[in-house]
Design goal:
CATH superfamily: Winged helix-like DNA-binding domain superfamily/Winged helix DNA-binding domain
CATH class: Mainly Alpha
Number of strands: 0
Largest sheet: none
Shape: elongated
Oligomer: single chain
CATH topology: Arc Repressor Mutant, subunit A
Structural class: mainly alpha
CATH architecture: Orthogonal Bundle
Distance between the termini: 31 Å
Helix content: 55-70%
Radius of gyration: 16 Å
């Protein structure tokens, strides 16, 4: 049976990343809980049940989260979070494993000399 996209994303992004993403994006505990639930493809009703709040409150938190991060949809939120995750994995000073082992061994095909390849634009 094929995995769902949300299952694949959970496997891709290590649990160790969430506290780092939360700190980097300056999310509150509740915003982080909502963002993670959206990332895992939970619907508003399921998020509300899990967090013990109303679906209306979940929607309010989501609207504020979208505004804070400059996104307009669940998909944009997930892509934004993935982008932050990739930037974190490209940094040398964290406990997350790199996405591409070649960067740390100096074998990145794009190299640090390339103008379009840097830690900030997702090349790990």
């Amino acid at each position: 049976m094929p995995e769902s996209a949300s299952q694949s994303l959970r496997l891709f992004m290590d649990d160790r990343a969430w506290p780092l993403i939360t700190e980097r994006l300056r999310l509150s505990v509740r915003e982080s809980q909502i963002a993670r639930a959206v990332f895992e493809d939970c619907k508003e009703a399921a998020i509300a049940t899990e967090l013990g709040i109303s679906p209306h409150t979940v929607r309010t938190h989501m609207e504020r989260l979208y505004h804070k991060l400059g996104v307009q949809s669940r998909v944009e939120l997930v892509v934004f979070i993935l982008g932050e995750f990739l930037r974190l994995t490209a940094q040398d000073d964290n406990e997350l494993p790199p996405i591409c082992f070649r960067r740390r061994t100096g074998q990145c095909p794009f190299g640090d000399d390339e103008p379009n390849c840097s830690n900030q634009n997702g090349c790990s």
